[in-house]
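Assemble and predict.
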Amino acid sequence: MRLAGLLMLAGGLTLAQPTVPRPAPRINFLEDCRGKVTVMAFIVTSCPHCQAFSKVLEDLSHSKSVCAREAAFNEDPDIASFARSFRLTFPVLKIERGVMNDFMGVPRGSRVGTPQIAVIDRNGIIQAQSAREGSPILIQPEILGAIVDKLRRP
Amino acid sequence: MISPAVAVPVWMMAWFQLREIFWLYLFPVVAGYIVVSMYMLHMRILQTTLARGSKPLGVFLTGSLSTMANLFGWRMMLRTWQLIPLYALGVGLAYAVMSRVYAVRLRRVGWLRFPRIIWRGDVTGVAQIRHEASQLLPQ
């Protein structure tokens, strides 16, 4: 019984994610978002939730004037066609999966739920981020909008 | 994970949780219940149509709709295995309830027709149906 408990604890620790708030790791495609409220989403172009979230993010980038960025980490993503088909005006990039792992604090090789979202304040601090298995709460436009509103206030 | 510094309004969180509970836990039960209820209803309408020799429109409609509901339930359930027990709970519940149904009759109100359930415990309703059935039997 104790051994099982210890094993579960060890498993939990190895899969534990850093909690928020925490400083956002420096990555070059967020350099021009410095000083702005930023929503960074790591996506898989074929994932329906990511596709739906892209539309939410597009609306948010106009209505709340946040700095929006998406990065696709699936194998060989056609980001140009993805951005065109969902009429995205913010930059969509192609990255290695490891970059997503490091940014979100997710152990490499573990399964993740997509989209993986990070909301970063003006000071470069992550104030909200998806759990490793994904967080449906951050996909909700009204909740994400409320978080962004809070962070935009001086 | 949302930082405690970013206080999201409580009603927003509550509304999200309510929707999540509905779609994750209640909807599969309802879907399973509807599927079985429709199939059982279809079988009873089919039997009545065969006995009376009436037009098969009801058989066609309930057959099509129950198959549609069934496939919809399967498609929804295949999204994740966690929904299977809840879907099965709805199916079991519907079988249990339908086993207590003696007949479904159509009640006419003007132009409209409403289904009326005759439960097994409804002594008068059951006796009336048996009497009507005995009249239909060849002498």
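Chain B has two domains: 14-99, 103-139.
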